[in-house]
Design a protein that fits this description.
The structure is a homodimer. By secondary structure, chain A is an alpha/beta fold. The first copy, chain A, contains 16 helices and 21 strands. In chain A, the strands form six sheets. In chain A, strands 1-2-7-3-8-20 form a six-stranded mixed β-sheet, sandwiched between helices. A five-stranded mixed β-sheet of chain A has the order 13-15-11-17-16, covered by helices on one side. In chain A, a hairpin with a 7-residue loop joins strand 1 and strand 2. The radius of gyration of chain A is 24 Å and the shape is globular. At the A-B interface, strand 11, strand 12, helix 7, helix 8 and helix 10 of A face strand 11, strand 12, helix 7, helix 8 and helix 10 of B.
Chain lengths: ~500, ~500
């Protein structure tokens, strides 16, 4: 067993702030294989929040990783939820406390769409798109290239940041640099499943989770690969819609003009919800949207344009939003159709009127929208179209009684959050990360969602996002990956924040 | 080996026309199990037109069934097509020739949706919906109930009519009644796959296939279970549409307002094609539609209404067509969306912008529309919406070059057909079937499609449909079945037509 990190650090003289980054880099260059293997071991544990046995294994594994760095850990349990991992590293003399948040659960997988199985971490000497070869991580005999990728579910989202933070602690220890702040860790196990129990967990452990600043490690760096911090996230809300046709599939010739076709009805319903530019057509949907502040508009102008490269890489012939920039567009609410299904297409298509049509939608919310508001506005919109809205599967009598009938199954959701760009903690974090060199990108909000609002609501602390992974990581899709250089850069980012935050943001004594 | 039927019949005295039906019924009552087993054996042979080995087995099996009745048979072959079965039974003294058409191939199957495997013929003592028990056909120890059902792909569409016609020959032979007309059989093996080679086959064998009347045995009897004949069918045309989103699935939070969503675009496209009442919105789509004749309008009034019972049975809260009757609606062209697919729904849904969206559509055509007209009008409509229409999978360059891009894959199709209701052959057929008793239903057109137009176009003969199977047969869908009483009624219908047609429609000598 190793001696606790703190005991060693307190006894050793600190190196100068400017020397932290080179020292951490030197440590990393000497320990790349070890860091990568630690990440691969973590990815190899299947991590759907609904898979109770494996998600607990993830929590125990993360807890053990923290403990190896001298962090005091415990699992936080709430009925019906995967355990969360809490960790605490007190630093002698530190007056500020920094909370590091990440999640270890991952999005559902469609194994057939993966080139290698989602929970078999696979190192490639480049990208899958470029047909890069697989490199055996267990028998690595060559230097690891910065453009290599490690593939696996949650390679980026969020296991890489967790491993990078661990490596940052190892590197600081080697450099004999104590963190400047007390460190806390809160690692969640059901973020991708909607964080249904997060509020209860935060409220139950309000004192334990008190901190001066929450650092969220979810999300990617900028598409230019430049580092960025973000001050907000969008909220999220999901709904499954089902429309009903005839009780049994009908021959489309004999009944095709007579029996209502649920796939056609679904098309008409979806077309009524938003237009081709992404504008949401649901009545009053934008009423709750908080206007942008002057500082947010100013920050927007500092974000480099990436749209042309992205359009080319994604083979897009157009974008939505009538020419507005990507950072500007994600400050608006969004309605995404994540799937539609009815009958069969292609070889399996039969000349029949389908019995049902389904659509799956996710909404992205901005301040000050609420999930309740989204729900009531969509349901009012559908009622306005003549729909009877059911929340359970309707029986034959209900189907006969309603010319227009939709079943809605709402998933858990949460609202957006945004920290003011001129909060002292935010300004200090930016100063430390910039270290007097290049300005980093300050994004008013990330397009994605983490339940950031809860941290602020419950703990009262400011919350800022420090993402480290590559933007082209196939997050949430098949063949998720992390680019190796992003992992290395992430280690340095965490190390300079841990080492320098309190000096940049002194607490009054 | 049996002696040929003809040799026996010519030597025996015929019974009176009015006695044919009772004699056939008596034979059937004594031979029910045998008839049912013959149908089950036929259903047990998988019959997708694309399954070359099995579809040939079907052809050989049907040919052997005919040969057992003394019918001279041969397989008609056309390159690239399953074989068709031709049969001929010359009757001494007969001057008219009746052609019996049916098909032995079936629609694609989704085995997961079937209660018992599609090619495992399964007898039940009632309907699956009523949870009727399975009865072992191999060890049948009880009388077969008229409401029992035999389940399996093509149980109704079209293997039951083929077996019923064979049983009719057996029954007439037993009753020592010779057919009044020369009989020909033409059994097709790719009807459900679009009859791509039918024209070539008919043209190649024009002389062999000459007849005074073609009798089509496809389609169901009326929903009231009353017998009907039909004088037309709708044409059919299928197309697969694919729309393209980003080249890889994108996180819907980070890119959700910016990357075009192909599922949303598909909804908008489909909504532009037809309205909720079934009206096709494609410009000029109805221009070619031939107005109804006075006789057709008159016949429509004789069709009993079934809409209320059907709505209840199908749990429908509404129907399309603004209150028009079902027989009236199927005289119009139809656009049916047989399937849509994009991303994932339900448990598998991930918060991503899908890369593609697909829809599968079948069109039903009426006289005088053509498949070429449908194709050019849909493509013009899509171009009018700003789409670039591709017929091959577009590469990245093509995708980047076109803000709106759709791939269309057209299936083979054919036009509609309609025989005049007052053609002498049609009038004679109706007289024989009515036999001085109840009027039968005369339907100007069936909603479904068989390539009826080809028979008329190539052979010049009138074509009338004599369906025998139940309307609630799940044709084209899972759990296809035939109701036993329909099979029995079908045997009698074929027998009276075979025995009496020439007397009702004497040829000039």
């Amino acid at each position: 067993m190793r001696a606790p990190l703190l005991a060693l650090l307190a006894a050793a003289p600190a190196i100068a702030a400017d020397d932290v980054r080179p020292a951490v880099r030197a440590w990393r260059q000497a320990n790349e294989t070890q860091v990568l293997r630690e990440l691969a071991e973590f990815i190899a544990i299947p991590n759907l929040a609904s898979d109770a046995v494996n998600i607990r294994k993830n929590a125990e594994h993360a807890s053990a990783m923290l403990a190896r760095r001298g962090v005091t850990t415990r699992l936080l349990e709430t009925p019906g939820s995967p355990p969360a991992v809490y960790g605490e590293l007190k630093v002698r003399g530190a007056r500020r406390t920094l909370m590091v948040y990440a999640h270890f659960d991952g999005q559902p997988v469609d194994p057939a769409a993966w080139a290698t199985p989602p929970w078999t971490p696979t190192l490639r000497s480049g990208t899958l798109d470029d047909k890069a070869l697989i490199v055996d991580l267990a028998a690595l005999a060559q230097p690891i290239g910065p453009e290599w990728r490690l593939y696996g579910r949650s390679a980026s989202d969020d296991k890489a940041p967790i491993v990078a933070a661990m490596a940052a602690l190892d590197a600081l220890k080697q450099a004999k640099v104590a963190p400047s702040v007390n460190l806390k860790f809160f690692l969640e196990g059901e973020e991708e499943a909607g964080s249904e129990h997060l509020r209860a967990m935060l409220e139950a452990h309000r004192d334990l989770l008190a901190a001066d600043l929450w650092l969220l490690c979810d999300g990617p760096v900028h598409q230019t690969r430049k580092p960025q911090v973000y001050f907000g996230v969008r909220g999220v809300m999901g709904v499954e819609l089902t429309l009903y046709g005839p009780a049994r599939a009908l021959h489309s010739g004999h009944y095709g003009n007579w029996a209502p076709n649920p796939a056609v009805e679904l098309a008409q319903l979806l077309a009524s919800l938003r237009d081709a530019e992404g504008r949401i057509l649901i009545k009053g949907f934008g009423d709750d949207v908080r206007p942008l502040s002057v500082a947010e508009r100013e920050a927007l102008r500092s974000v480099p344009p990436v749209e042309d490269e992205l359009k080319a890489a994604l083979a897009l012939g157009r974008t939505e939003g009538e020419g507005a920039s990507l950072p500007e567009l994600i400050l608006r609410p969004a309605l995404n159709v994540r799937g539609v299904s009815s009958g069969k297409v292609g070889e399996a298509a039969a000349n029949a009127v389908p019995t049902e049509a389904q659509a799956s939608i996710d909404f992205r919310l901005v301040p000050d929208q609420t999930p309740e508001g989204v729900r009531s506005k969509l349901e009012a919109h559908l009622r306005g179209l003549g729909y009877h809205v059911a929340h359970e599967t309707p029986d034959a009598g209900t189907r006969r009684a309603h010319p227009r009938l939709v079943k809605l199954e709402w998933g858990p959701g949460y609202k957006a959050a945004r920290t003011a760009l001129d909060h002292p903690a935010a300004l200090a974090l930016v100063r430390v990360l910039e270290g007097g060199a290049e300005p980093i990108i300050k994004l008013p909000t990330l397009g994605g969602s983490v339940p950031m609002h809860l941290f602020g609501d419950v703990t009262g602390a400011p919350v800022v996002g420090l993402p480290i992974v590559n933007h082209d990581n196939n997050q949430h899709a098949a063949n998720e990956n992390v680019r190796i250089q992003n992992l290395w850069d992430g280690i340095e980012a965490f190390a300079v924040v841990f080492a320098g935050l309190e000096q940049a943001w002194p607490a009054r004594r």
